[in-house]
Specification:
Structural class of chain A: alpha/beta
Mean pLDDT of chain B: 95
Shape of chain A: globular
Number of domains of chain A: 1
Enzyme class (chain B): oxidoreductase
Radius of gyration of chain B: 20 Å
Strand order of the largest sheet of chain B: 4-3-5-6-8-7-13
Protein name (chain B): Pyruvate dehydrogenase E1 component subunit beta
CATH architecture of chain A: 3-Layer(aba) Sandwich
Pfam families (chain B): Transket_pyr, Transketolase_C
Number of strands of chain A: 8
CATH class of chain A: Alpha Beta
Strand content of chain A: 5-15%
CATH superfamily of the largest domain in chain B: Thiamin diphosphate (ThDP)-binding fold, Pyr/PP domains
Structural class of chain B: alpha/beta
Cofactor (chain B): thiamine diphosphate
Radius of gyration of chain A: 20 Å
InterPro entries (chain B): PDHB_mito-type, THDP-binding, Transketo_C/PFOR_II, Transketolase-like_Pyr-bd, Transketolase_C
Number of domains of chain B: 2
Largest sheet of chain B: 7 strands, mixed
Low-confidence stretches of chain A: none
Oligomer: heterodimer
Number of strands of chain B: 15
Largest interface: A-B, 16 and 17 residues
Distance between the termini of chain A: 62 Å
CATH superfamily of chain A: Thiamin diphosphate (ThDP)-binding fold, Pyr/PP domains
Number of helices of chain B: 12
Order of helices and strands of chain B: EEHEHEHEHHEHEHEEEEHEEHEHEHH
Number of helices of chain A: 7
Helix content of chain B: 25-40%
């Protein structure tokens, strides 16, 4: 039997990596974290033509109309809540792009979970076994990502190789708790690689960026049977 | 936080104090009295509490005594239990007890059982508190009553206040108790004012855990209840009094250990028993009361089977008309009394 040379790779079952001879801690990179993918500048001009999804005009109008409809619905329902006519309502003001951009990128037969991170993974697993061209998308806020369910969801999605897109809306606050008290790492996107998830951070106010990221994540989640994590920054 | 402004009846020091303000006073007094006491939970600090129960406390006591946590009940409950084991006295707030299900392993296995499992050497002096049971229009996943679930477990004390006096006195008693205590409040009661005597408003006023209170004396039927339905029982008693039926209304105050002796003494007097609770019927608080009455001395004094008035055995609906009919109403209590009295 040949013995490995002194230049050998570690043989630990828990991780695949090189040896290091210098004591050095990995610093969590919160000063310049994961970059924010965008398609448009602040004035709405497409920055790079290759990133333009080139959607037909009617579809773009539909996106705009749906976002405006959502905004209007919010106003009516919020006022209903303040009048005591309904019990509880949370508005989407400012975040319309995250919902509409991502939903536009899905197929009609895809499953949408508005919460329930691990249940979404279970559904994705069932869909994978049925071998249909379907994906699951699971929406949650950056606060809800603190729940143990999120940890279990991410981990199971990766180990079970599920066609799921985790869509995190990071709007900086959970009720009144700011992100500085919710977590100390580089947001939610930075957690993805820790679980083995393909991850991206996008400008949630840029509907084309949200669309592009979700479209590609969905396509690959189904084609490659692996989970994706999208963190949409918004306010 | 200071005393909340209250309407005064100047003559005898009695004030109208809401349950919210009573809880706030209780927390303020216990934080001041013992520096090991601290409050943690979601939104308890800077937001003054999701229901404003901890209004002003973060401002007064600071980051070390009032702590906003990330959204992980499993996480912060476990941390609170550990802190209690190491000598602090945490008050762990659940935004509602529905969310305590995320942390139930910590409440039962880490908190409730540890004193026993350590042969008494590790105490867990923790209070779990928050709104329990039905609110208004918050639907199935936010309306469950946990009195039966937590009342089932040895190692826990479980209290369920109704009035402001109950709320403040039981909160103070719970914080001073060296055992894990689950305090089941009620969101709809937070804004309700009750009379509080001068004595009840004092810093040393404590309501003993494990003792029920007779809110109204009567001789024809015993109504036993806890939390918000106690108010409904008193309303039903007022209506029935006009028809010549005098109800004795017992406010349990504590679910575990239950003061069954007070119930037994009342049943011996009235010979009739109706239990009233907001929770589901199966394996509930009323079921336990009936079982214990059967097993004890009062059984022979019953002139009719005991009747339970409970929440409907369905997940709480969202539609208001359905929700209203899933919660015990005054008319349901009156119906049950007349049924057991055969009138």
């Amino acid at each position: 039997q040949e013995f490995p040379s002194p230049e050998e790779k570690p043989q630990f079952p828990g991780a695949s990596a090189e040896f290091a001879e210098r004591l050095e801690f990995i610093q969590p990179n919160v000063i310049s974290g994961i970059p924010v993918y965008r398609v448009m500048d602040r004035q709405g001009h497409i920055l790079s033509p290759s990133e333009d999804p080139q959607l037909p005009k009617e579809q773009v109008v539909k996106l705009y109309r749906t976002m405006t409809l959502l905004n209007t619905m919010d106003r009516i329902l919020y006022e209903s809540q303040r009048q005591g006519r309904i019990s509880f309502y949370m508005t989407n003001y400012g975040e319309e792009g995250t919902h509409v951009g991502s939903a536009a990128a899905l197929d009609d037969t895809d499953l949408v979970f508005g919460q329930y991170r691990e249940a979404a993974v279970g559904a994705a697993y069932a869909i994978k076994r049925a071998d249909a061209n379907r994906a699951v998308i699971c929406y949650f806020g950056e606060g809800a990502a603190s729940e143990g369910d999120a940890h279990a969801g991410f981990n199971f999605a990766a180990t079970l190789e599920c066609p799921i897109v985790f869509f995190c809306r990071n709007n900086g606050y959970a009720i009144s708790t700011p992100t500085s008290e919710q977590y100390r790492g580089d947001g939610i996107a930075a957690r993805g690689p820790g679980y083995g998830l393909m991850s991206i951070r996008v400008d949630g106010n840029d509907v084309f960026a949200v669309y592009n990221a979700t479209k590609e994540a969905r396509r690959r989640a189904v084609a490659e049977n692996q989970p994706f994590l999208i963190e949409a920054m918004t306010y | 936080a200071g005393r909340a402004p209250a309407l005064h009846c100047p003559a005898d020091g009695v004030s109208q104090v809401t349950v919210r303000d009573a809880l706030n006073q209780g927390l303020d007094e216990e934080l001041e009295r013992d520096e090991r006491v601290f409050l943690l939970g979601e939104e308890v600090a800077q937001y003054d509490g999701a229901y404003k129960i901890s209004r002003g406390l973060w401002k007064k006591y600071g980051d070390k005594r009032v702590i906003d946590t990330p959204i992980s009940e499993m996480g912060f409950t476990g941390i609170a239990v550990g802190a209690a084991m190491a000598g602090l006295r945490p008050v762990c707030e659940f935004m509602t007890f529905n969310f305590s299900m995320q942390a139930i392993d910590q409440v039962i296995n880490s908190a409730a059982k540890t004193c026993y499992m350590s042969a008494g050497s590790i105490a867990v002096p923790i209070v779990f508190r928050g709104p329990n049971g039905a609110s208004a229009g918050v639907a199935a996943q936010h309306s469950q009553c946990f009195a039966a679930w937590y009342g089932h477990c040895p190692g826990l004390k479980v209290v369920s206040p109704w009035s402001s006096e109950d709320a403040k006195g039981l909160l103070k008693a719970s914080i001073r108790d060296d055992n894990p205590v689950v305090m089941l409040e009620n969101e709809l009661l937070y804004g309700v004012p009750f009379e509080m005597s001068e004595q009840a408003q004092s810093k040393d006023f404590v309501v003993p855990i494990g003792k029920a209170k007779i809110e109204r004396q009567g001789s024809h039927v015993t109504l036993v209840s806890h939390s918000r339905p106690v108010g409904h029982c008193l309303e039903a008693a007022a209506v029935l009094a006009k028809e010549g039926v005098e109800c004795e209304v017992i406010n349990l105050r504590t679910i575990r250990p239950m003061d069954i002796e007070t119930v037994e003494a009342s049943v011996v007097k009235t010979n009739h028993l109706v239990t009233v609770e907001g929770g589901w019927p199966q394996f509930g608080v009323g079921a336990e009361i009936c079982a214990r009455i059967m097993e004890g001395s009062a059984f022979n004094y019953l002139d009719a089977p005991a009747v339970r008035v409970t929440g409907a055995d369905v997940p709480m609906p969202y539609a208001k008309i359905l929700e209203d009919n899933c919660i015990p109403q005054v008319k349901d209590i009156i119906f049950a009394v007349k049924k057991t009295l055969n009138i």
